Model the fold of this input.
Amino acid sequence: MKKRLFSFLLFFLCFIQLKAQQRIAVEKLIENKIQNFIQVDTTLQGIKHDKEKLLAFLTEAEKSGYTYGMAYAENALGILARNKAEYPEALARHEKALILAKKSGSVDIQIMALNMFGVVYRRKDEMRLAIEYHKKALELAESNVTSSETNERSIAVARNSIGNIYLTLKQDDLAEQEFLKSIEIESKLGNKLGLAINYQNLGGIYEERGDLDTALNYYQKSLSYNEQINSDIGRIICKNSIGQIYLKENHPREALRLIQPTIAKAEEIGDRYYVIMAKMNLGWALYEIGELDNAESYIQEALEGAKVRNVRYYIAESYSLLSKISEAKGNYKAALNYNRLYHENEEQYLNERNRQYLADLILKYESDKKKNQIEILEKENELVNLKLEDNNKIIAILVICTVLLGIIFYILYHQSMLRREKAFLALEQKMMRSQMNPHFIFNSLNSIKLYIINNDKDKAVYYLNKFSKLIRTILSNSKEKDITLADELATMGLYMNIENIRFSNKIRFDIQVEEGLQTENIRIPSLILQPFLENSIWHGLSSKEGDKCLSLRVFQETQDLLTIEIEDNGVGRARSTEIKSKKTLNNKSIGIDLTDERLKNYFSESATGHMLEIIDLYDDNGEASGTKVVLKMPIRSEFTRKPNQRDLVSA
Done:
């Protein structure tokens, strides 16, 4: 008993001594006005997560005129506010930190404040502002002649944040490049927190791609680093990510074991976002093992939390899981209602994202336009100054000014036309969702946006024109029961042109029409060939390495029979099925079945119907070498088709 009392007293005395030493170190920091970031960060390590203590330090630093310390404290207070989703306060704190850092001449804290601005705007889904602040931080850090460990860490943070922005824009390859650059810097610095964050991000990329083994490997690396630095929030995120992999691999009990303890830990930390995430995942795991009542209870709690914080993604996913649980219980009415709410919230979430992306496109374009105008005005001013200095060059200057004015008017006119085209595209996009796969539209706009972000205006304008023409064609054709074969082939050419953007135009596509075939006189259902082309791209060519070819051949087999062949040199159906089985959330494509039904309906009154055959192709060694679709249909010409109701009225 005496030994225990002695040990306690010894520990208490050590604790008091440690606190006293820490207080003395902070006082010396203020007294000597230290401007070394690592020394300041190390000294304030014990108080930088405590708002009250930070405010007390800020007051003392302000009394002593310690500007560098004030800048550090404002930045740390901004981070605390951001983690509690108090974004206006966070932005105000980082703004003060930036002003104080400039006043004290601290480049390190300026870079950090710019990066923190970017993180706040990224959490608010304001991607244009986020990437601008991160690029400012990156440019300032890379141009800093006095490179330091803090400077290198700021570059790594900027790279990671830009990677996360690319992830939001569905540009996985670009995001992966940024994360790998960040990992290279963090490895050199030995920063385990930075490595944990980047490996977690890489795991998310590979999980989205369906490569669960690689994703799990990255998540486990991240968890290992979080264990080493004893990060509770890091462990919560990693264990939930690993749990999701187990759920997708049909190991719900292993997932349950990992996820369940993270709820209490997230509630203890006070981060409601991760409480919602953990309860969602726990409900999912309980559903998978058949504990439906418990699963429903946790999902309802997650739903209420998501509604309070207006987290659209978790609201939609909660309704989806509740629909499945109700169906499993036999309550089909509730299941149907939850399913309706799921689609409504998912649709609203996607529409909000589409509007945000389109707004970002327009804002970026307007910003570039103003920049060009300023550059032109600067050139005009330079010409005026030259004119005042040398009157003998008046004629030459007038000629140059005239040319510049012509260029200005041309640019303004050209930009005005582009703005009208973009406005038209935004209006048409709302009406197009019922005609085309919304993910095709969503991904196409993202690819075009990337060209604008990278300032590649020629490609951006080129593909915007192609995209708008495709949408107009689809909307026009949707009014008719059938269209000419010539119009269908032209539309497929436009469709392939847009799809090929995301493959860096590596797919060689050609259309071959038998000589003498009157495509203008032959009528077929509109967009009847698009599902076959889409299947060839995503099930055959997307997983193929090397040369990618896709051909569409049209010929008249007999006087009354038209044949269309679509052939690719992809991986074949067997290999495609194997790849799909390893991916998550495999949605069954019903495009071919719908096409077959449309053809049956279209030729229902014909003496002979259509014939659809899908042939697996093999090379001389018996290896799969692609797929061929053969579609045969009776020829229905412009002159033989029956008039529809619209024709009769106009007649």
Summary: The first helix runs from residue 2 to 32. The radius of gyration is 31 Å.
